[in-house]
């Protein structure tokens, strides 16, 4: 899947202009497993660029990476997933064996001395996580942030008190009102490109789409 994501990023980087997009304004975003796979792809690409890289895109083409409710150290998550019902044997079969866990744990990879120069190539990394996330503990983002900052990477973390795994991108937008995470993302984009008009990046106050009792009911039955 990391290779698939890399090919997808390559397509965007090399074709965005022909679709009316701006190649100078490319941002990488992932949520949950998507945040994990995107982080793996980003770190792997940076490492490749420190060697004999033959890929068709570069990390310098990305303005920033936004990781939402992600997991970044699979070695720490095996037991957690097992307790949550994703049994160890099933998870390890998905990951092609226990020996692959380290390779697909970006928090672990960036701590290796050999990749110090690769970490310096990474774009700005902004992580978002709810403190009440039972599916992917917010400690995952905190530990990844610490590992990145220790290596000198530009990284930030926004924690949202009492928010679950899906609140940030699903329930909160359905509730309407101010979307704090979206506001943070827009603020990053605006800081990266002051030339953009404030009107173009204004975050509207959304109307409520679903009654609160339905969201609370969904929260009770959702496994996340």
Automatic annotation (TrEMBL):
Location(s) in or outside the cell: Golgi apparatus membrane
Domain annotation BD-FAE-like: ranges: 2-148
Pfam families registered for this protein in UniProt: BD-FAE
Superkingdom of origin: Eukaryota
EC code: 3.1.1.n2
Reactions it catalyzes: [protein]-C-terminal S-[(2E,6E)-farnesyl]-L-cysteine methyl ester + H2O = [protein]-C-terminal S-[(2E,6E)-farnesyl]-L-cysteine + methanol + H(+)
Gene3D superfamilies linked to this entry: alpha/beta hydrolase (3.40.50.1820)
Top class in the EC scheme: hydrolase
Main location: Golgi
Entry keyword set: Hydrolase
GO CC annotations, alphabetized: Golgi membrane
An annotated Gene Ontology molecular function: hydrolase activity
Membrane topology of this protein: Multi-pass membrane protein
Family of this protein: Belongs to the AB hydrolase superfamily. Isoprenylcysteine methylesterase family.
PANTHER family: AB HYDROLASE SUPERFAMILY PROTEIN C4A8.06C, KYNURENINE FORMAMIDASE
Name of the protein: protein-S-isoprenylcysteine alpha-carbonyl methylesterase
Species the sequence originates in: Aegilops tauschii subsp. strangulata (Goatgrass)
